[in-house]
């Protein structure tokens, strides 16, 4: 944390950088704080550092779980899963989130000084101060949440601990030796920042005059034309009140989970915040019918599935090069496991068991349609070719090319643009990709989990139930209707298992599974399985990769170099 310097290095970026689709950095300069704190563009450049390091869907941390194997022997998540996780080696660490916290704290100092004129007009200037302070507080809460998610745990003292919470910028010679708060105090500190941000941010950017939030419309001499200057839809990819409410729901569900507080109050908070937002889009009727493949085409990248995303990138093929099977010139890096494939039910909604019609020798027939959308199966057409992972499959056959061909019998399809083409000469036809920070489907699943934990499958919050949500999600997926299996679910425990499985499928390969297993207190050591067609029969491969997490790995370590430097920091138990 002491890497921050007194004279801040700023990459000056036009003030709308998060809000538009073209990023135009200015020249890089070292600037005195006094100059930065009086120049609107320079000051906002500090704030925009808070938008760096946002967690998106491209971590591929599933390789550390029962959902996938990474075939690159040097992959950090693979190494972690095989037993290398320690206080010295933790690829899932988020301790560097505090660097962004200090950026926004520096900006909040500027805001507090009130020396910048964002506009010559008094009202416009006041509204700029409101919105930008709201952004900074929300981002400070969010980056603290990232650190909490990765490093909360039972300390050596036996207490459930959170993280240090920094509300001021600290000079290089200042005191960084700050103890961790309790877990709940950490949650409450983040909530406080979110709640204050909600009194300053517009619910959405580009609101019509009749929709303007009270805290703006009640300002003395309010003028809608001036309001538009500050909160126009030009800024609609920056953090807003809607996004903050969704983040509160995510935080509350995390806090309420069995590995942490297991607390009904936080389940209520999660469900109510989620319901409030979902009801603004029509409740379950607002579930985007095309949300399953939000990544698959240009129009879906900007669809109603997106609660918060980045600006659109340029055409690229980097992820496809990493993940496509070898026969279509990819490196086949992420291999979904047979464990994951068997999480998909039959097309009639029943679990995939032989008692329900699953045929081990015709394993992909009559399955949930999401399976073929998310996983490249043996015999599938993909990337301009037919992919065979069994006997006769050439380069795509299991273990044909070390660290390139599949190790499980499957290749990844989800998140990849199916219209990307990688040519034999190394050239490629790339397509647009986007970083997704929050999807509405995640919010629906947050609601379902929380509402069920409060009162079971049919408990209403805001007029919605967990059963309503899961019914809509499975109907969108293509599960046969009526969904008799869902109708058979009557208890909280049965619905809990179904919700967790739906979350596993719907949010697969978006960086959730590793964190979900930990917050639910489930085993991290499920052996990764594969499935191979030997020319005559499908054969299960029961031990593709044996995981080796310590029993205390539910709570990950504080980085050892921080523990060594700062005596007030208490390490999590076992590390």
UniProtKB/TrEMBL annotation:
This is RagB/SusD family nutrient uptake outer membrane protein. InterPro entries: SusD-like_N (IPR033985), SusD_RagB_dom (IPR012944), TPR-like_helical_dom_sf (IPR011990). Pfam families: SusD-like_3 (PF14322), SusD_RagB (PF07980). The keyword Ribosomal protein does not apply. It comes from Geojedonia litorea. Its main location: membrane. Residues 308-575 form the RagB/SusD domain. Belongs to the SusD family. It is found in: Cell outer membrane. Keywords: Cell outer membrane, Membrane, Signal. Residues 63-205 form the SusD-like N-terminal domain. The keyword Nuclease does not apply.
């Amino acid at each position: 944390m002491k890497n921050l310097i007194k004279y801040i290095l700023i990459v000056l970026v036009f003030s709308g950088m998060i809000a538009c689709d073209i990023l135009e950095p200015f020249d890089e300069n070292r600037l005195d704080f006094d100059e930065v704190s009086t120049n609107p563009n320079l000051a906002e450049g500090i704030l925009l550092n808070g938008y760096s390091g946002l967690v998106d869907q491209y971590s591929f941390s599933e390789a550390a779980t029962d959902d996938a194997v990474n075939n690159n022997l040097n992959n950090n998540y693979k190494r972690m899963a095989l037993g290398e996780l320690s206080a010295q080696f933790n690829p899932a660490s988020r301790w560097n989130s505090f660097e962004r916290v200090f950026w926004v704290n520096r900006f909040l100092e500027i805001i507090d000084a009130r020396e910048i004129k964002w506009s010559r007009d008094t009202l416009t200037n006041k509204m700029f101060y409101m919105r930008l302070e709201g952004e900074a507080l929300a981002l400070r809460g969010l980056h603290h949440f990232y650190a909490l998610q990765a490093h909360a745990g039972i300390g050596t003292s036996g207490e459930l601990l959170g993280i240090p919470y920094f509300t001021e910028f600290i000079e290089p010679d200042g005191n960084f030796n700050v103890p961790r708060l309790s877990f709940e105090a950490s949650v409450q500190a983040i909530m406080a920042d979110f709640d204050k941000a909600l009194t300053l941010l517009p619910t959405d950017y580009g609101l019509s005059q009749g929709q303007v939030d009270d805290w703006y419309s009640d300002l003395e001499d309010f003028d809608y034309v001036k309001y538009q200057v500050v909160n126009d839809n030009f800024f609609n990819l920056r953090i807003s009140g809607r996004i903050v409410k969704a983040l509160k729901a995510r935080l509350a569900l995390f806090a309420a989970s069995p590995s942490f507080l297991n607390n009904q109050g936080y389940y209520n908070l999660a469900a109510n915040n989620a319901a409030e937002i979902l009801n603004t889009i029509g409740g379950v009727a607002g579930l985007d019918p095309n949300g399953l493949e939000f990544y698959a085409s240009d129009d879906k990248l900007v669809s109603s599935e997106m609660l918060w995303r980045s600006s659109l990138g340029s055409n690229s093929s980097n992820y496809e090069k990493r993940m496509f099977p070898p026969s279509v010139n990819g490196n086949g890096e992420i291999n979904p496991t047979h464990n994951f494939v068997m999480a998909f039910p039959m097309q009639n909604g029943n679990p995939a068991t032989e008692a329900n019609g699953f045929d081990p020798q015709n394993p992909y027939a009559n399955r949930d349609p999401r399976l073929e959308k998310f996983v490249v199966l043996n015999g599938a057409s993909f990337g301009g070719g037919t992919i065979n992972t069994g006997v006769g499959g050439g380069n795509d056959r299991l273990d044909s090319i070390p660290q390139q061909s599949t190790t499980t019998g499957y290749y990844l399809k989800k998140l990849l643009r199916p219209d990307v083409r990688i040519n034999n000469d190394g050239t490629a036809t790339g397509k647009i990709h986007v970083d997704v920070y929050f999807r509405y489907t995640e919010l629906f699943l947050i609601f379902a989990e929380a509402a069920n934990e409060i009162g079971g499958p049919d408990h209403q919050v805001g007029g919605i139930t967990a059963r309503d949500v899961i019914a809509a999600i499975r109907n969108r997926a293509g599960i046969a209707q009526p969904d008799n299996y869902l109708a058979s679910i009557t208890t909280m425990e049965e619905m809990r298992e179904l919700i967790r499985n739906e979350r596993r499928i719907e949010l697969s390969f978006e960086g959730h599974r590793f964190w979900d297993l930990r917050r639910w207190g489930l085993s991290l050591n499920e052996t990764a399985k594969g499935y191979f067609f030997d020319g005559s029969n499908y054969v299960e491969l029961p031990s593709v990769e044996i995981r080796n997490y310590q029993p205390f790995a539910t709570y990950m370590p504080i980085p050892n170099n921080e523990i060594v430097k700062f005596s007030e920091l208490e390490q999590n138990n076992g590390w």
